[in-house]
Design brief:
83% helix
């Protein structure tokens, strides 16, 4: 008789732990968004509750959405734009250097051919 009540109590305890565990897990993206001061943290929180009713189908996307934002760099596009600009500028410099080197090589080739022709004339 005691074991029946103990089993029933254990079953209820496990059911409650699973129920509240799922609620805590669904709230992880919101907690991440709140910690990072995400501009859409309310939307992430509401979508997390909707995700509870869709068997957490939205949850991975909420996690990604919450982790993309960082207060110090925002979405990160400005940094990407700056890096792209720097790469483009460096590429232009390299192209100029290559063109200068091509001119030098052609000048050296013409000097070499002139020296070879002068050497042939001297013989």
């Amino acid at each position: 008789m005691f074991l029946d009540y103990f089993a029933l109590g254990l079953l209820i305890f496990v059911a409650l732990v699973i129920f509240y565990g799922i609620i805590v897990i669904h709230d992880i993206p919101y907690e991440i968004a709140k910690e990072r001061e995400h501009p859409h943290q309310d939307a992430i929180h509401y979508a997390g509750w909707v995700s509870l009713f869709t068997l957490h189908a939205l949850w991975p996307f909420l996690w990604i959405w919450a982790t993309l934002w960082r207060k110090e760099r925002g979405w990160g596009f400005k940094q990407l734009e700056q890096e792209t600009h720097d790469i483009h500028h460096r590429l232009e410099e390299l192209i100029d250097e290559v063109n200068e080197l091509k001119k030098e090589v052609s000048t050296l080739k013409s000097q070499k051919t002139a020296q070879q022709e002068q050497g042939k004339e001297d013989q």
